[in-house]
Amino acid sequence: MAVEVSVDVLDERDQRLVAALQYDGRLTAHRAGEVLGLSPRTVQRRWRALMDGTVRVVALPPRPAAIGALLLRIRVLRGKTDAIAAALAAREDVPFIDLSASGDEISAVAWTAPGTRDRLVFRQLPSARAVTDVTAATVLHAFREAADWRHDVLTAAERQALAPPYAAGGTPPDPPDDLDRAVLAALRADARAPAAAVAARTGAPESTVRRRIARLAASGALRTQVVVDVRRLGLAIDANVMMRVPPARLDAVGRALAAHPAVHGAFATTGTANLHAAVWVRGLPHLYRFVSEELGALGVDSAETVIVGQAVKRPGAPAVIG
Asked: Distance between CA 181 and CA 161 in Å, rounded?
């Protein structure tokens, strides 16, 4: 496990600029300044500093409709977690990996074909001598995914002003053609890449690429995610909470959790715990209040909380082992 080091927390202005990008990854400095009450020059200067290693804006890859997800809890012999985590991190079908603070459990998300006998769960993990137990829960419904989470530092009026057009609903986007797919692929690692750079990669005229990017963004086909160490946003505690909720309350509780500013993942699942939530909070007292007061008020029957010691793998960010 990595030794914990202190992390410098961004000031309020920079945190607000990060949050603005979460609403629109291709937000212009002029528009951000207009909404947040800053000069465009200040916005540009601070974004330039933040994107020099602190913040990345990536384009989310499309996910086939037929792909489902498993939430895995993998018990591992002490001293062997790094090796198992590294093997999982090398897999393209495992986008999320956490190591527990206790050092003996790995939590992961694995893409899978629903209703199939998953090879990773049934053969590969059980055959590893360092693995002592594997529990797999199938995601039945996603109330909130990591890309949907927004840092809660903007006012309601600012959030409304920054919300993309597709957030209000409307006509679904047309199926992407070959050029759309090429543009989206070119934006995968840097969703803020200028149209000229995307045109150079795709071989299409810059004016055409600029129109395609605008159309893809307006329709919701181009979805972006801000990759940032949330500890720099003042959120020092990362935890996974597995809950048992009465079936008649499952949808209502799941929707309430999805609207909670601390929750960056909420899923209805199979298994003894039928509702899972991933939360970021400022400290242990905040986590205690979340579990004892807020979950209690929602009528949760029981909850098991696992604090994350290390986030090994996240979409858009390199895996970190050890």
From this structure: 29
**Cα–Cα dist 269/49, whole Å:** 41
* pTM value > 0.85: yes
149: CB partners within 8 A, 6+ apart: 22, 263, 264, 265, 280
Query: Is the CB of residue 287 less than 8 Å from the CB of residue 239?
Result: yes
Residue 231 DSSP label: G
Q: What residue ranges do the domains of the chain occupy?
A: 12-63+149-226
Angle in degrees, CA 222, 228, 232, rounded to 5: 150
Tell me the backbone φ, ψ of residue 129, rounded to 5 degrees: -65, -25
- Matching CATH number, 12-63+149-226, of 1.20.272, 1.10.10, 1.20.58, 1.20.120: 1.10.10
- Judged by DSSP in three states, 84 sits in helix
Q: In the predicted model, what is the mean pLDDT of residues 72-96? A: 91
Distances (CA, A) of 149 to 66, 76, 233, 280: 24, 30, 13, 10
- For residue 239, what is the enclosing H or E element? strand 237-244
The secondary structure of residue 121, as a DSSP letter, is I
Express each pLDDT in 11-36 by its tens digit: 999 999 999 999 999 999 999 999 99
CA dist 59 → 17, 37, 305 (Å): 18, 27, 31
The CA distance from 27 to 234, in Å, is: 23
Angle at 71 between CA 167 and CA 127, to 5 degrees: 150
Burial 249-284 (b: 16+ CB within 10 A, else e): ebeebbebbbebebbbbbbbbeeebbbbbbbbbeee
